[in-house]
Design brief:
Number of domains: 7
Distance between the termini: 124 Å
Strand content: over 45%
Largest sheet: 8 strands, mixed
Low-confidence stretches: 1-45
Radius of gyration: 56 Å
Mean pLDDT: 85
Shape: elongated
């Protein structure tokens, strides 16, 4: 790598050496400098280390906070902010006071180049050489590494002497002596922190950056009595500057951290002087500071009433009057002088502070310690100051960017001739090898006040040169047995081939990767499936590799910087699938070679382990599946509950117990439908032996997965796998058959997957039929007044299902509620016509409306039918009128299944029976059921104009309805019509009465036949265009006429 400064350096070995040192400095700045998105930095300036992107409420400017250095960097554009992957919600609002505590950085470089730029007001100026860098007062450690995209956002300008950049606007600065500047007084030689002047600086039309500040020292004084002169802001925060006194001038070079003043803003600079504890004669000596001219200010066009002069102070000797204070470091006497990373409240320093004059008490206000070795904020934090009594009297969360620890105390009293021992404690979150892991604490400044007056006393400090080495302990690693639990396989299934515990020590770390090797005997095949690294206790997957990567040696598994808290233990397992070709008796063994991790400082470490894991010896279980031949094919009725729909036998070969965890059932080869809720199946129960392993209330898929259980089949044992279900009467399958398409099981000892033989074997078939019955009307009847046994109706029940039926009950309804005991009817019962056996219990006293009759479980075998007649007793007082009845609520159920039968037919067809009394009787029954559309001589008859008066009634009925003889008689005419002629039948009933039936689609009698009342003589018709319909018809119906002595009569009077 070539430096950009090389062309500007003279030849010579000395310059070459300087160049090399400069390059090394740049590299170190890159390695240990700012990485904008680093997440391991500690808090600075009182803000949480997680707060990195900030702004104030009143200003849109966004800053990055470097907690390691205590610096801030503004983003010059949105592109610069986004180039690091930042997000706008990451920006936190802080106060202006908090932001002002962070000096702004001005030295930057890109991570892909060694060129260093001075940054000011959104512009960048290239620093041309190492000499220019050093002469400008810059520090290597303050170079900030930023992204190339960020650096590209700055405009280019020229670098000038003193750290200024070219092309400035009108950067005028008005300087005055501030009204708060102290008035003339006495200064005691030997006192510290003496405020001698306060200057007010106000930027006018443009912001300014002051890079150098020169004070002129006036008065009559001996320079040897001055220990130092320093500057602070209005909050008494000391400016971090390099300074020197020469020729009665104090020069402050602040290139690296310029004082930035916004346009219109005013800032104050306080000037303090510390005097040595000197016995020199200061009689008639004075001291005064001034800014003689505008050129004393570099970085702005200063204006003011120069010279600006502070008050003149008279010097007096404090020697022999003020208290004398000494501070001496005490040896820690630490074994091996080591501090273990992760330890807390570690003793890193011990100091004794004493008042030795015996004149008066003193008050300790502040103790400032610095680490003169390189261990910084990454290595030390949470500082505590403890006194001799063990009390914590002050705390500091972190070092400053200059590796200083400043303890503030509230007037801690030390009596005259007394002393106090202070112990400094710290937490050790991290550390690195070499000088960056050394602690060498020294007391750099002590602010001690006299009790005689407001004098800051000179403290004579003696420090030791005693180093403490920060040491990192390796992590604990332990191999564990290959034992599974319920959580390790939550996300990935397989076999545990390695199991290890990582035991962290006192430090928070980020695990980067683990390195493993695979050991096996020669007969074993290599791993071919993915190997997952999982959390043994949660199943969370941390990483994975391909199994065949072990063929090439050791393998790293990336963990993505997994967080591991201090003293946290982590158990990890390697899970994979063992090759089917792996023979019994072979083994695999995982070796944990080492692990890589990152500590809080960002440094990466590798611990070598070479821990051999437990040996995984291959032991496979063999399982065999068969259909359960003891059951064979079975039949059930649709609607049955708790039926066994599948049964298998599973056998385990000798050699080891087997744990079964998952089953999948698929549709068998002879199944006519799926086993699903939509298809009429519910409440599936799955068993192995007597153990229920799963219930699925509403199955919805063809394949049924049953998991979440653990059943151990003993070596050499057998068990039944069985499935039960409930069915609905509307079941959508007539035959079902299940097959076991998948079975997951492992050897209980080795966890190796079992070998399952005869997968996809079918269970025996289960057939489903229905319990069904058809009810139909057979005949109507009549009642004779005073007759004990009258047949008023007949109906037929046909068993059209596959199971014998037992009849339940039927309800007889009277349309006009006349069939009641109150009107003379009794002993209502149902009788089997063929057997003439009562099929029910009798209703001795029928009620009006409806009477339910229990059929007593009368048995009708599958495929057979039975005809039943309704009998009733009538006394002499029954009314002389015809009556309509119908049936409802007919029930039946399967003899074995007890499933309610599906009832078809129309049991609500009305039955009309004729009541015959001693004086008269209505002889005719209605030939077909249905409503009357056109009555006798109906004025609305549509064919009156062409066909004349309507001579009968039209009864609406479906095409092809059986037509019954209205009464017994002789058939006198049968006409098969064609064209306009309708087909009809005429029957003579004697006594001059004739009935006529027209628009017939079928003729079942011939002229001369004798027919009984209710006997079917043909089928109705009337649909236009069909045979027998004739011309004058507009729909399916029966035309019925009555003639008395050859004259048309109203049929309704005879029905």
């Amino acid at each position: 790598m070539m430096s950009i400064f090389k062309k500007n350096l003279p030849a010579g070995a000395g310059r070459a050496k300087n160049l090399i040192m400069f390059l090394i400095s740049l590299v170190m700045a890159g390695l240990f400098g700012l990485i904008l998105m680093a997440d391991e930095a500690l808090a600075a300036a009182g803000l949480d280390a997680k707060i990195r992107q900030v702004k104030t409420a009143a200003n849109p400017a966004v800053y990055y906070l470097d907690h390691n250095r205590g610096l801030k960097k503004p983003y010059v554009s949105a592109a610069a902010f986004l180039s690091y992957g930042n997000k706008w919600p990451d920006i936190k609002i802080i106060s202006q006071e908090e932001l002002d505590k962070w000096p702004e950085t001005h030295l930057m470089k890109s991570k892909d180049s060694n060129q260093v730029y001075y940054i000011s007001q959104g512009r960048k100026a290239l620093i041309a050489s190492e000499q220019q860098f050093i002469e400008s007062g810059f520090k290597w450690a303050e170079i900030m590494t930023i992204s190339p995209a960020d650096l590209a956002e700055y405009k280019i300008t020229d670098f000038k002497v003193g750290g200024a950049v070219g092309d400035n606007n009108d950067n005028s600065l008005a300087i005055t002596l501030d009204s708060s500047s102290p008035k003339a007084d006495y200064l005691a030689v030997g006192a510290q922190g003496n405020l001698v002047a306060v200057f007010s600086l106000r930027a006018l039309s443009a912001p300014v950056e002051i890079t150098k500040f020169v004070l002129n020292l006036k008065g009559i004084f001996n320079s040897d009595v001055i220990q130092e002169i320093y500057l602070t802001n209005e909050s008494d925060i000391e400016y971090s500057v390099s300074s020197r006194m020469d020729n009665r001038q104090a020069s402050f070079n602040i290139n690296s951290r310029p004082i930035f003043i916004s346009s219109g803003e005013t800032k104050k600079i306080k000037v303090y002087v510390n005097f040595k504890d000197s016995s020199a004669d200061v009689t008639n000596q004075t001291f005064q500071v001034a800014i003689n001219q505008a050129s004393n200010i570099i970085g702005a066009n200063a204006t003011g009433a120069f010279p600006l002069t502070g008050e003149t102070f008279k010097l007096i000797s404090g020697f022999g009057i003020l208290e004398s204070v000494t501070a001496s470091e005490q040896s820690l006497s630490i074994n091996n002088n080591q501090a273990i990373i992760g330890s807390t409240e570690k003793n890193i320093g011990k100091f004794n502070l004493a008042e030795t004059s015996g004149r008066s008490d003193i008050f300790v206000k502040e103790l400032k310690f610095a680490n003169q070795s390189k261990a910084g904020a990454f290595s030390l934090n949470n500082f505590k100051l403890k006194n001799r009594a063990g009390q914590i009297i002050s705390t500091v969360p972190e070092m400053t960017s200059d590796r200083e620890i400043v303890f503030k105390l509230k007037d801690y009293r030390i009596k005259k001739n007394g002393n106090e021992t202070f112990i400094i404690l710290a937490d050790i979150p991290g550390g690195e090898n070499g000088e960056n892991s050394l602690i060498n604490l020294y007391l750099s400044k002590a602010k001690v006040l006299s009790s005689q007056g407001n004098f800051n006393l000179y403290v004579n400090i003696t420090n030791l040169d005693e180093n403490i080495t920060i040491k990192r302990e390796t992590l604990g690693l332990v191999a564990k047995e290959l034992k599974a639990n319920n959580k390790v396989f939550i996300k990935e299934t397989g076999v545990i081939i390695g199991n290890f515990e990582i035991r962290n020590n006192n430090q928070k770390i980020n695990l980067a990767s683990l390195n493993f090797s695979l050991g096996k005997n020669s007969a074993m095949p290599g791993l071919t499936e993915t190997v997952y690294l999982v959390n043994y206790n949660t199943g969370e997957v941390y990483g994975y590799i391909n199994g065949d990567e072990f063929d090439n040696g050791a393998v790293d598994v990336d963990l993505g910087n997994l967080d591991l808290k201090a003293k946290q233990n982590l158990v990890i397992a390697l899970v994979t699938k063992i090759p089917d070709s792996a023979p019994n008796g072979g083994y695999y063994r995982i070796i944990l070679n080492g692990l890589n991790y990152r500590v809080a400082s960002g440094a990466y470490w590798r611990d070598t382990a070479n821990i051999a894991g437990a040996k995984l010896t291959i032991s496979k279980s063999n399982l065999y599946l068969y259909p359960n031949n003891e059951l064979g094919d079975r039949s059930f009725i649709k609607g049955e509950k708790n039926i066994k729909i599948a049964s298998f036998i599973i056998e385990g070969a000798a050699g080891g117990d087997t744990k079964i965890t998952d089953l999948t059932f698929s549709r068998g080869s002879d199944s006519s439908g799926t086993i699903s809720f939509d298809n009429g199946f519910s409440n599936l129960r799955f068993y192995i032996g007597s153990a229920k392993i799963k219930t699925i209330s509403a199955p919805y898929s063809g394949d049924i997965a049953v998991g979440g259980f653990s059943y151990v089949l003993k070596s050499g044992a057998r068990a039944e796998i069985k499935v039960y279900a409930d069915t609905e009467k509307e079941l959508g399958a007539s035959t079902i058959q299940l097959a076991i398409s998948n079975l997951a099981a492992v050897n209980s000892g080795s966890l190796i997957p079992a070998v399952v033989n005869n997968l996809n074997v079918n269970s025996h078939k289960v057939n489903f039929g229905q319990a069904k019955a058809e009810i139909s009307k057979v005949a109507e009847g009549f009642v004779t007044q005073g007759e004990n046994d009258n047949v008023i109706a007949g109906f037929k029940v046909k068993n059209s299902g596959v199971e014998d039926l037992r009849l339940g009950a039927i309800t007889i309804n009277a349309a006009d509620q006349e069939l009641t005991y109150s009107l003379g009817y009794s002993n209502l019962r149902i009788v089997n016509r063929d057997q003439q056996r009562t099929a029910s219990s009798a209703v001795s006293r029928p009620v009006a409306g409806a009477n339910k009759i229990n059929l007593g479980g009368y048995l009708v075998k599958a495929g057979e039918e039975a005809v039943f007649d309704v009998h009733v007793k009538a006394n002499d007082s029954i009314a002389d009128q015809n009556m309509d009845i119908y049936f409802s609520d007919f029930t039946a159920q399967g003899k074995t299944s007890r499933v309610s039968a599906l009832i078809s037919g129309d049991p609500t067809d009305s039955y009309k029976f004729t009541v015959v009394t001693g004086s008269s009787a209505k002889m005719f029954i209605q030939p077909v059921s249905g409503s009357i559309t056109y009555r006798w001589h109906d004025a609305n008859y549509p064919y009156g104009n062409s066909n004349g008066e309507h001579t009968g009634i039209d009864i609406v009925t479906a095409q092809g309805t059986p037509v019954k003889a209205a009464a017994a008689g002789a058939v006198v005419a049968v006409v098969s019509g064609s064209g306009d002629q309708a087909s009809y039948i005429t029957i003579s009933h004697g006594n001059g009465l004739i009935t006529k039936y027209a628009h017939l689609s079928r003729l079942d009698v011939q002229a001369g036949d004798q027919v009984n009342q209710g006997e079917i003589i043909g089928l109705s018709g009337g649909t236009p265009g069909t045979p027998g319909a004739g011309l004058y018809t507009n729909g399916a119906h029966l035309h019925f006429e009555v003639l008395l002595n050859g004259v048309s009569a109203d049929p309704e009077k005879y029905l």
